């Protein structure tokens, strides 16, 4: 990711402020799929940390990764305001997951960031029985584009896992899967 991209994300996060903790959108109404602590969670491309803080609030030792220092600041601020801990890691995911991210994790979340080169790493980071939650933009029900997944991309990429939820439509694709 270029410096311009990082600065663009910093500007965006500087204007939105902290959010409210909540599960990934595909888990709304399915929150029981996520274990309560003690367990470990990873939120990849965490943005302002609303999912990471939600996971930490459930008792999971949570690590959040993002390219934007402003996003990580918001994550830390939100976690602190609720009395939970989230470990933040600044990293350009275009270079892969940073060495500081060491699995296994019981929950791995990647929302609104698509880089198929990361798919194998996300799967490798899962502990036995671990839950993977991925949501990306999709060509299904929307226009194409370089940042959008083709139909069936997530299911094919994670075919080694037990797929619990596979939804595509309205320009989005969601997958929830468990490592056996």
UniProtKB/TrEMBL annotation:
Cited InterPro entries: Methyltransf_25, SAM-dependent_MTases_sf
Protein name in the entry: Class I SAM-dependent methyltransferase
GO biological process: methylation
Organism: Actinomycetospora endophytica
Keyword ATP-binding: no
CDD domains registered for this protein in UniProt: AdoMet_MTases
Domain Methyltransferase positions: 42-130
Molecular function, one GO term: methyltransferase activity
Keywords recorded for this protein, A-Z: Methyltransferase, S-adenosyl-L-methionine, Transferase
Family matches, as Pfam families: Methyltransf_25
Species classification: Bacteria, Bacillati, Actinomycetota, Actinomycetes, Pseudonocardiales
């Amino acid at each position: 990711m270029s410096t311009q991209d990082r600065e663009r994300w910093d500007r965006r996060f500087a204007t939105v402020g902290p959010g409210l903790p909540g599960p990934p959108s595909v888990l709304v109404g399915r929150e029981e799929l996520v274990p309560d602590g003690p367990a470990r969670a990873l939120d990849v491309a965490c943005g302002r940390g609303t999912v990471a803080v939600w996971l930490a609030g459930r008792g999971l030792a949570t690590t959040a990764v993002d390219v934007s220092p402003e996003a990580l600041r918001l994550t830390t601020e939100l976690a602190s305001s609720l009395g939970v801990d989230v470990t933040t890691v600044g990293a350009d995911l275009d270079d892969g997951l940073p060495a500081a991210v060491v699995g296994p994790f019981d929950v791995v979340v990647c929302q609104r960031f698509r880089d198929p080169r990361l798919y194998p790493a996300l799967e490798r980071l899962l502990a036995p029985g671990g839950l993977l939650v991925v949501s990306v933009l999709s060509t299904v029900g929307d226009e194409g584009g370089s940042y959008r997944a083709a139909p069936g991309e997530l299911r094919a990429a994670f075919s080694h896992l037990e797929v619990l939820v596979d939804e595509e439509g309205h320009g989005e694709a969601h997958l929830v899967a468990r490592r056996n």
